[in-house]
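Re: beginner question about structure tokens

> Can someone show what the tokenized structure looks like for a real chain? I only ever see the sequence side.

Sure, here's an example I had lying around. Input first:
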Amino acid sequence: MALTIGLVGLPNAGKSTLLNALARVNAPAASYPFTTIEPNTGVAVVPDERLDRLTELIKPERKVPATVEFVDIAGLVQGASKGEGLGNQFLGYIRNVDAIAIVLRAFESGDVTHPLSTVDPERDAEVLWVELGLADLAAVQRRLESIRTAARSGDKAAQQELAALTEIERALDSPAELRRLLADNAIAEVADRLRLLTAKPAMSVLNIGEDNEHQRQLVARVRNKATTENMQVCVINAQLEDELNQLEPAEAAEYREALGAEQDALTVFIHTAYKLLGLITFFTIDGPEVRAWTVRQGATAPQAAGKIHSDFERGFIRAEVIGWQALLEAGSIARARELGQLRLEGKEYLVEDGDVIHFRFAV
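And the corresponding structure tokens:
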């Protein structure tokens, strides 16, 4: 399954433009609130030069990259958790995503109104976290009401859940405190069962416009605060990126170079999201296909095999492993095997970023 990321922001923060820039889906974007009514979704290919290099070497019939799915819901407003605006209707659409991207407006525009009149990404972030927290608080309180009777009757599992829910309820007004609590596996399990929005990994996306001193100050303040809160931040000019996507790749690359932008928005976004979630990539070469797979850092060889098929994990015997650069230097799998560069790894092996793996299994 693709990595899924929900885009959350105030109206006119540029979420739909960002979605267009990342996934090229032509989602509607306009200079008035609530352009997005039904959630927009888009799937983007994860750019990876290593996969391209392996494809050039192997020359397979198919190259299958990793993908990421974006879900863009209606802009949230103050009071969304209590029924204000339209955004509250769609919070359910992002309760199943792997991570949340908080899209914050840092650009000035006389043509695009701001729902709170002034551009202040720090304030906007606080508004959004309050609304997400209040929505989660309602879910926690409903669960507390339904479990108290069982807990009072002596049900041990109910008592443990009640204790975890009480801790979560207390911490919901502070995302940093909640993240600290989630280090406790019992609390994390309860939060995951309730699909709490504020418990999901989150990153901030600053949507900027033309460079100016005031905007640079806004960006610096958000970055400084993110550092103190151990939050991941990426800065993207969504409008510019959307426009560059209309050009031929070579022309767009030349224009980015002139602007001093080494990477496109999707690469910047994916790099930040992978760092946030602790994700790495391994590759498989199977007959006519070279494919990229995404796993958590620290995944064992059987767990990585399970990404391909549950039978691979259940019947795992061993894995043949070589780093992607070593394979390029060898020139082929056959030559790497002749040189003794293919390592046989067992169930305890921790997959490394860039591994090329062939799994042996029996079921």
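Each token stands for a local structural state, so reading them left to right follows the chain. The two ends are 23 Å apart (CA to CA).
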